[in-house]
């Protein structure tokens, strides 16, 4: 029997420091849970001179990633540098040497996941990626193991803490978008370039991973409809409150029943600002916190909630994966759980439902000239496209005689909404704000 499991870590940044700290501070607890110690045998980073505030044997630090991977004492490789390259190169190198891998790299898994899973399957090694979605929330393990016997119907996820922080501050303090972004950057909640977070791409990466696990189907990231929060204004948040809603950036995936044409069903996959009822549990998730609401056929509603980022929460998820893989090494039960939850030959390519076929209620905000009959003109065009109005809210005049007109529609198709807006905007100087509504 092995006397210890050697851990080689690539990347000694924020998350890497969290992982190292937990492995050191909780060494005895981890030993009791695995049966043998987990020992850091190498840490590779471009910067091995800066003081991270962690007492380490300097001999385990290196700038040579290849040496770390090739080291016969390295039993499990941890990739924490992020991005596509050279992270992919390092991961493939580790897997082809038969070394299990743990990663927090959601972008890489969303873009190149199929190649990585296939390589791991070919060489018979485990991959852990709990930290790729939701930081410290155990959502990957929940889908792969806890809900292994459950048919998942729906996923609603607040899976980007930066966007959620921004919307929360705008909603609670009525601060303009750009001011909140700057505040988030000063507080360390947003990157110097926050575009990946605020434009929804980070959430799309995570949603693609969740869909793969929940529905057993690979997802092309480019097919996930993605829209960020950059156009949301305080006026939209205020109007949403008056209608009894809260605006959140959600990643949404839904399975719908099949028919003769699509016997296995189809999947909705979309990321966008969404109005949800104030009484919804997700509406109470504020600040940098994340939450994922699952609806299963047998269990009904389940929600996982927690910190979606940060050194120690994300580090905890990485260490949890290390413990799982170490247990498998000790018991010689590698790849006990399929990488994507489903057995490789049982996964299916399900159709992704085009956005044009989406059917839901909509929030529409028009900025129009305050002239007689404008409401009836708007309603007429909407009616011509089979869109009926549930509620209307009209604000006072802005400069130049313009007035915001807000409408909530009954359920309509995305195709009809877009067609109507295109016709309406032919007579408007400003873009129409469209926010989709999820009432369930």
Q: How does this model look, in words?
A:
- The protein is α/β, with parallel strands linked by helices.
- It has helices spanning 14-25, 27-34, 65-70, 87-96, 106-123, 139-146, 161-173, 177-187, 195-198, 201-215, 234-243, 311-331, 374-384, 414-425; strands spanning 5-10, 38-44, 61-62, 76-79, 101-103, 127-128, 152-158, 225-226, 245-256, 266-277, 289-296, 300-307, 351-352, 359-369, 389-394, 402-409, 412-413, 433-437.
- Strands 7, 8, 9, 10, 11, 12, 13, 14, 15, 16, 17 and 18 form a twelve-stranded mixed sheet that branches. Strands 3-2-1-4-5-6 form a six-stranded parallel sheet, with helices on both faces.
- Strand 5, helix 5 and strand 6 (127-128) form a beta-alpha-beta unit.
- It is elongated and about 85 Å long.
- The model has no long low-confidence stretch (mean pLDDT 94).
